[in-house]
Design a protein that fits this description.
Blueprint lengths: L21 E6 L4 E6 L19 E10 L6 E10 L2 E6 L1 H7 L4 E12 L1 E6 L7 H13 L2 E6 L5 H13 L6 E4 L4 E2 L9 E2 L3 H14 L4 E3 L6 H13 L4 E3 L7 H7 L3 E3 L11 H9 L5 H10 L3 H13 L3 E3 L3 H7 L17 H5 L2 H6 L5 H16 L1 H7 L20 H13 L3 H7 L2 H6 L17 E4 L13 E6 L2 E4 H21 L3
Parallel strand pairs: 3-6, 7-8, 8-9, 10-11, 12-13, 13-14, 14-15
Antiparallel strand pairs: 1-2, 3-4, 4-5, 6-16, 16-17, 17-18
Helix pairs in contact: 2-18, 4-5, 7-8
Length: 511
């Protein structure tokens, strides 16, 4: 949990838009959802009367601003925010004399970083509509102001939420989403877009264009490598960033050459440490099973060969979103079963029930299998500073989702960053992976992810310097989201509201 032993500032009046009841008919391939979304009220906020002017100014002073592009700290500065933009950065005397009506907030020498980005989440679950929307404010309470949703069975609903958040109709993190992912026929994933041939691909890609998704996500549960590669090429030609998994019958460089923008999950990079082409060919020719191929990649891993592979991907501008926290949680379940985690107070019984899927998949493993899982995780974690040194862009993401056990929305990003630090990555590089790297990847760095005049005011005030220890990102004093200021007591109020909503939802359900 975040440190609550901090000074409280009085919360300036905020313009909070209440979420109206909404019936949103969502129809997908495998389910039909009628989503009735409840009104979320935050008692700790004072709304601005609708008749008042929407213009407001905040002047935050006595603040140390961290430039995440180079690690420089501008000490004892003042930040003027008008509406949702950073208007000016200067010394306090200059700004306060010109902005006497602005709300003055003394940061007390604390540190300002851009709002954090979780570059891999899944807002999912046809029966978890209310559960998901109740967690949106929790992201903000943990300083996560932007998320990248990597597709789900709620894809159409998430696209609607994205637009409502942008309009101020829903309170939550800014969302960039793939909407619905591309897959093969009869995959294990609910609500995906299944394709069997190039005609299907064109039709489904046209649908995603119509939905105005932010990028394309492709996975390989039943999708052949050949059609997967064609999907990458077609998505790239349509102007999209395209990310996903790596088919067992293709090499990573096959996808890189086709225009792959980013790999989801660092576990795939283990393939670069051996003869990936030979292994992929054997799988394609039916001489090697998927399980045997994956086993071979770990057993034959050569570190120097892998480093060369990372450098090649860097030259081809392929990014990586490692998502290590989930692997760690499952690998060390014998050490910590997470039943005492404080965060569980925000998750409904229905949400937590989904965790059993992955837990049961590894139930009954032998001691040797458990140790092998740990060894595999540690090998992948060890690659993080080597990947960074190669020049590959690292995107901090968590895979937080109902189906992913104990990867908690908001909190998990801080845990992922701590894993990066333990592996040997510098705090500055870690901050970049969770801020500016994501904005650059999504093509919005001109308006987000740095603290500079003209940028959207998504800012986190920390009690400690994160360039010394990345764990400081958990010690949050205040969050500015889209120009609105939330002090520590207000952030605690968001968490308390989420807890009450969980109790309410559990009480009214029979499952």
């Amino acid at each position: 949990m975040m440190n609550n032993n901090v000074l409280h500032q009085s919360l300036l009046p905020l313009q909070i838009t209440k979420l109206p009841y909404m019936n949103n008919l969502f129809s997908g391939k495998k389910n039909v959802v009628v989503a009735a979304i409840a009104i979320i009220l935050f008692a700790s906020f004072t709304p601005i009367p609708e008749s008042s002017s929407p213009t407001y100014s905040i002047l935050i002073y006595n603040v140390n601003i961290i430039d995440v592009t180079n690690g420089k700290i501008s000490a004892n500065k003042a930040i003027l925010i008008n509406n949702n933009r950073i208007a000016e950065i200067s010394d306090y005397a200059t700004l306060q004399s010109k902005n006497k009506q602005a709300q003055k907030i003394d940061a007390g020498g604390r540190y300002a970083i851009p709002g954090l980005w979780d570059m891999h989440v899944h807002i999912e679950g046809a029966n978890l509509v209310e559960d998901n929307i109740a967690l949106f404010p929790v992201y903000i309470a943990y300083g996560v102001t932007t998320v990248r949703d990597a597709a789900s069975d709620l894809g159409v609903q998430v696209l609607a939420w994205r637009d409502q958040i942008n309009k101020g109709e829903i309170f939550g993190p800014r969302i960039y989403t793939a909407g619905i992912k591309l897959e093969g026929i009869n995959s294990i994933w609910k609500g995906d877009m299944e394709i069997a041939n190039e005609q299907d691909l064109k039709q489904k890609l046209d649908s995603l264009i119509g939905y105005k998704v932010d990028f394309i996500k492709i996975t390989e549960n039943t999708l052949s490598g050949e059609l997967f590669q064609k999907a990458v090429i077609a998505s790239k030609k349509s102007g999209f960033k395209v990310t996903g998994h790596v088919p067992i019958d293709l090499t990573i460089n096959d996808l890189a050459n086709a225009g792959f923008s980013g790999i989801e999950h660092a576990s795939y990079l283990v393939r670069l440490g051996s003869d990936e082409q030979s292994t992929a060919n054997e799988v394609k020719n039916g001489k090697l099973s998927r399980a045997d191929a994956n086993r071979r990649y770990y057993e034959n891993f050569d570190q120097q060969k892998a480093i060369q592979g990372y450098a090649e991907l860097a030259r081809k501008n392929v990014a990586i979103c490692p998502t290590l926290i989930g692997s760690r949680q499952l690998a060390y379940l014998d050490v910590d079963n997470h039943l005492q985690d404080e965060y569980l107070q925000y998750l409904t019984k229905r949400f937590k029930a989904n965790y059993e899927w992955r837990i049961q998949r590894q139930a009954g493993e032998t001691k040797e299998q458990i140790q092998q899982r740990k060894n595999n995780y540690e090998l992948i974690a060890k690659q993080i500073p080597l990947i960074q040194n190669s020049g590959m862009v690292i995107l901090a993401g968590t895979d937080a989702a109902a189906l992913n056990s104990f990867i908690y929305p908001g909190l998990a990003l801080h845990q992922e960053m701590e894993i990066f630090q333990k592996a040997g990555m510098s705090p500055l590089a870690i901050l970049q992976s969770a801020t500016i790297n994501g904005a650059k990847f999504m093509g919005v760095s001109d308006s987000l992810a740095t603290i500079a005049p003209g940028k959207i005011a998504d800012i986190v005030l920390l009690n400690e310097n994160p360039l010394t220890n990345i764990s400081a990102t958990k010690n949050i004093y205040a969050v500015i989201k889209n120009g609105k200021y939330y002090d520590r007591s207000s952030l605690d109020g968001l968490l308390e509201t989420a807890k009450k909503k969980r109790i309410e939802l559990d009480a009214k359900r029979t499952d």
